Amino acid sequence: MRWQQRLPLTAVVIAIAGVHVALGAGCAVLLLRWWSPWAAVAGATLCALPSLVWSLHRAFAPSHALFRALAGTVASYRDSDYGFGVSWQGRGALGELVAAHNELGETLRAQRLSLVQRELLLDTMVQNTPVAMLLLDPGDRVVHANLAARRALGGGRKLEGQVFSALLADAPPALADAFARGGDGLFTIGDGETEEIHHLSRRHFRLNGRRHELLLLRQMTTELRRQEVQTWKKVIRVISHELNNSLAPIASLAHSGAELLRRGQTERLPDALRTIEERARHLEGFIRGYAHFAKLPSPRREPIRWRAFLDQLRSQVTFADTGPIDDAFTASFDAAQVEQALLNLLRNAHEADGDPGAVAIGLRRAADGWRIDVLDRGPGMNEAVLANALLPFYSTKRNGTGLGLALAREIAEAHGGRIALLNREGGGLCVSLVLPD
Fold it and tell me: Which residues, by range, are in coiled-coil regions (predicted)?
């Protein structure tokens, strides 16, 4: 679209007015010959007025067309159509207005192109991810579902607009049960060679002022089986190491005992038998620890007074209190399991800190239950150890089994709680065990 203005608008208007004044004056002179002065003036005015109106209309027509073009392009911008621009060769305020308008159009055009490219990239990523993704509106209808979700729940068909509960009616029972339980979690579909392990994640958020739910369904079979194989390899290495450390000296001492008996040197037999007994008991305790970790029963909760519980714990291992503990403080937990967890933590603290008086327990009320802190002034842990210390079979000790902290974590999580490790200011470690009410 092009609108051109060669001369300044003011000059054009002045020129037109001058021409029509001259025309009117000429008409007045001619009419004075026949009419009175006032009639002559009126007649001249009537004679020049139509021409003046027509000339002004012609003079302002380009400006009117420009304003209509600007209004049209603004309407196009509102409809997300940025393919229009305005050309105006005049100067002054109108020229600046047109330039600013075209610059705005170019900016909107570039932003639109960038948004389209980002949307295309995002849609490509969402559609091709192996994670099934569904977005549900407040009415439980599917707003969006990617290709993985279509394959998992619709046999490849489009799911948008369908009621999600109706889709679950035709889904595998394990999947329907996982959604019925609510929250995140793992579930298994099939059995034997066809077994598939999936992880369900659910998140709520507000979209356009309305509550929506995002569902993520991820198959974990390959990853979990790979981790399971690595874990079993590590278990086998640890068990093989412990068995070799015990069985090798037992076999050696048994052979030596047989030689002593053959030679009649029985005075050295008690030492050999004592060492065999010690190694056998160590091996028995090692295997019992693994069995206990693998067969941890569900906690049997009962009301426990903290003061009495900690006094009983102190009779088995030494520690100090960081503050007074009221006799009225009570909580509901499995006393035997929590005692085992704290014993493991306290023994680790004593091994890390050579000063028994520096090992302490702090008890305080937390927002969601009770927090028990086991404190020491040992060397603490570096970042790598902190990241792996709670994993089963991970140990930095030469003869460690890597089960102490892992068992404490298992007990805490069985109670619905958690455990955390943190280096203390001034040196040492704080292991926090949180138990919910």
Answer: none
Task: Order the strands of the 360-366 sheet from edge to edge.
Answer: 320-321, 360-366, 369-375, 429-436, 418-423
Helix (H) or strand (E) holding 301: none
CA nearest to 145, candidates 216, 74, 207, 91: 216
Longest dimension (CA), the chain: 170
- Give the predicted TM-score (pTM) of the model: 0.45
Alpha-helical runs (H) found in 92-146? 92-128
Spell out, as residue ranges, where the chain has pLDDT lower than 70.
1-64, 66-67, 69, 79, 82-85, 87-92, 192-193, 223-225, 228-229, 231, 235, 238, 242, 289-290, 292-294, 354, 392-394, 397-402
Q: Smallest Cα–Cα separation from 86: which of 109, 102, 62, 75?
A: 102
Q: Are 229 and 208 in contact (CB under 8 A)?
A: no
Nearest to 286 by CA among 408, 400, 406: 400
Report d(CA 175, CA 190) in Å as an integer: 11
- Whether 239 and 249 have beta carbons less than 8 Å apart is answered as no
Residue closest to 352 by CA, chosen among 293, 292, 395, 313: 395
**Tens digit of each residue's pLDDT (9 = 90 or more) over 211-253:** 899 999 888 777 666 776 676 777 677 677 767 777 888 888 8
Length of the chain: 437
Can you name the residues that pair with 132 across neighbouring β-strands?
A: 217
Helix (H) or strand (E) holding 417: none
Token pair, residue 185, equals 């979690």
Nearest to 282 by CA among 253, 250, 258: 250
Beta strand residue intervals within 348-393, DSSP E:
360-366, 369-375
Domains plus CATH for the chain? Answer: 2-115 (no CATH), 129-219 (3.30.450.20), 224-294 (1.10.287), 302-436 (3.30.565.10)
- Quick one: pLDDT at residue 49? 57
Q: Hunting for tokens 């994670």 — which residue is that?
A: 131
Q: Is 337 exposed, middle or buried (0-12, 13-18, 19+ CB in 10 A)?
A: buried
pLDDT digits (tens, 9 = 90+) for 294-330: 677 788 899 999 999 999 898 888 899 888 888 888 8
Q: H or E segment at 314?
A: helix 306-314
Helices 9-31 and 37-78 sit at what angle, rounded to 10 degrees?
Answer: 160
